[in-house]
Amino acid sequence: MRVLVVEDEERLAQNVARILRENASCAVDLAFDGEEGLFLAKTNPYDLVVLDLMLPKLSGLDLLRRYRKNRHKTPVLVVTARDEKESVVELLNAGADDYITKPFDLGEFVARAKALIRRGMGDHSSVIEVGNLELDTSTRRVFKDGEKVVLTAMEYRVLEHLAHKRGGVVTKTELLEHLYDYNWEKFSNVIEVYVSGLRRKLDGASGSKLIHTVRGLGYMLQAEDVATPGKTRRE
Amino acid sequence: MKKFSLKRRLVFAVILSQLLLALGLVLVASRLAHYYLQSAFDVYLEGRALTVGALVYYPDDGRPGLLFDDSKIPRSPHEIHKDLYQVRSDRGDFERHANLYKPGLFDGLPSAAHFWDFEFDGEPYRAIVLRDFAILDTEASVPKPLPKLTVIYAAPTMDIGQRITTLASAIGLTGAVIVLPTILLAVWNIRRALTPLHDLADQAKSISVHNWEFQPSEEAKSAVELQPLIGAIETVLSGLQRAFTRQREFLGDAAHELKTSLAIVKSTLQSLLNRPRGAGEYRDGLEHVSEDSDRLEELLSRMLRLARVEQWAADGIHRDLDLVDVASTCEMAIARISELAGARDIHIDFSTSQMVLMRADPADLELVWLNLLENAVKYSAPGSQVNVSIAAASHSAEISVSDSGIGIPESELGRIFERFRRGDPSRSRATGGFGLGLAIAKSVVEAYKGSIHAESKLGEGTRISVILPTWSPPSAKRHEPGHSTSDVPLTRQVRSSQ
């Protein structure tokens, strides 16, 4: 998951980024003013934008309005030090999905961030089931046939993204864009490594296949190999 | 004070004046009537007395003595209380009187009086006295000098009293009949006249912290008497509203700053606790927390200082202050900023021409200069110069701090003295300011009855000048400026340590 944090208090931004990386396995980009924030938000496919309201150059509210005007659907979590009713109403009307008031609890912040990412992906529960595979996104644990599977951080992130988009094709670029911050191009050939690692751990000896390669397009997570859709389409 | 109603007071005043009017009318009318009636009565008395006098005559046949023809006495108008008369000669040999006359009746007659009031038979009478009345009917044969007559004629006056009573009661009754509708009319008019006042009161009653709307009716606004009141209410309201809004904004801004600062500390601590860390990470984190709490402390102390200065200025507390040399407070401030200025390679030039004294707490003045210098140094390019100068006038001094920094856009210039405002938000956090420095400076300067102004040109620099009232020696009015305190103008040049 890739998150943009727009916050002019650098220390706070770093702390928020750190907790998102550590507890939500997110790639995090930082912007310290409104203009930079809007530029990044418009040019990158984020899964969540964390937005402070009092920003230099361009206020958080203006950023949000312009962002929504451009038909971006990424969930926006607003961080504000003002909790007057009017401003909250104004925020939600402007297109914010949730808000949290300073000083906030980092645990609560991460929970809200994850919930927004999940909903942005179209999932309502923190537990995703694909065939005999069970993914708990809140604790970041994976079970196969009820047994815990130990994954590396990056493997988990690849799997989580595939799970959110289960049944659909996910391109390599999309994976890269959502798993790394803005210098993702450096990592272009590592996806295969993570995917093969995942296959080894999940498919194992059982023979059942979960991660399918759609040649020339990308990957897809699906319960049974009922004639891979990619193949059907091609033949 | 006891409560009272304006309307009741006015109605009472109207009734009282109406009654007084009626009473006055009755009194004046009866006095006038009495005067006219008595005049007419006196004419009647005189006429009757003359008639009685004319009835005395000498006999035709030359007999001595006087005769009186009482058959020709006019009839009394009153049947029961008849008129009285007496006619006598001054020689004492002749005296005639009315039948009813009792001896001694006219004895109490004052010697000089022309008219005389007395009581007879239980009724008031009025008499006329004609003295030295010459006998009209004389014969040539009668020896001269002829005797003179004294004629007294009296008649009852109760008719006058009766007529006056009738007249007075007629006027009184008419008055009473007229007073009642007049009072009703007055009450109605008073009620109508007081409507704008009622409207105004209702309007004023509806004002509260949540409703600053004050819209008096057109009628109230047109009333000359209410205009000053409306004006005063409007002035007070707008002042209050401004103060209230400012206060709320300040609270909001202060809360925002405090919450943000707290959020930083909290997030650092929570992210440290999120998972076990290495000793280096813990040290870094603790250092961050320490720095951020220093910042929080500084913010708090500045906010409290601002609140204290404003409170002190608002309460107008008189403080016993010593005379302070303004230049020395500038030097102190320059010394305190020198470290920051040195780090940014900024020179501070200080020039003053003469001693400027004023009653002040040196710490307050130092705070003002420090805040101005802090801004000047922060927004100046490294290697540039900041100028501090003092120019003294007769009763005031202008202290200015000018830099050749980035300047302030014209749209922001009017607002830089507001709290929590920074010229350009983008550099706010980088410079570590809170946007309180200039607000504090302004509050302190205004507390000393001075003024503060800013001029700026984008890219060329900013000049902030403070004008403070200074102390001048009471006996030095006629002295040339500069000679009163010292003969040699002071010149100081201070350069910040590099």
Folded structure, characterized:
The complex is a heterodimer of chains A (235) and B (498). Chain A has 2 domains: 120 residues, Rossmann fold (3-Layer(aba) Sandwich); 108 residues, Arc Repressor Mutant, subunit A (Orthogonal Bundle), CATH 1.10.10.10. In chain A, 43% of the residues lie in helices and 21% in strands. Chain A has 9 helices and 12 strands. In chain B, strands 4-3-7-6-5 form a 5-stranded antiparallel beta sheet, with helices on one face. In chain B, strands 9-11-12-14-13 form a 5-stranded mixed beta sheet, with helices on one face. Chain B has a two-stranded antiparallel ribbon with strand order 1-2. The longest helix of chain B has 49 residues. The C terminus of chain B is likely disordered. Helix content of chain B is 48%, strand content 17%. Chain B has 3 domains: 159 residues; 69 residues, Signal transduction histidine kinase, dimerisation/phosphotransfer (DHp) domain (Helix Hairpins, Orthogonal Bundle), CATH 1.10.287; 159 residues, 2-Layer Sandwich (Heat Shock Protein 90), CATH 3.30.565. With 498 residues, chain B is an alpha+beta fold. At the A-B interface, helix 1 of A face helix 5 of B.
The CATH homologous superfamily of the largest domain in chain A corresponds to: Response regulator
Backbone CA Rg of chain A:
19 Å
Trace the largest sheet of chain B across and list its strands: 4-3-7-6-5
> How much of the sequence of chain B is in beta strands?
15-25%
- Secondary structure category of chain B: alpha+beta
CATH topology of the largest domain in chain A: Rossmann fold
How far from one another are the termini of chain A? Answer: 33 Å
Greatest chain-chain interface? A-B, 26 and 25 residues
Count of runs of 4 or more consecutive helical residues of chain B: 11
- Spans where pLDDT lies below 50 across 5 or more residues of chain A: 226-235
Instruction: Summarize the helix and strand pattern of chain B as letters.
Output: HEEEEEEEHHHHHEHEEHEEHHHEE
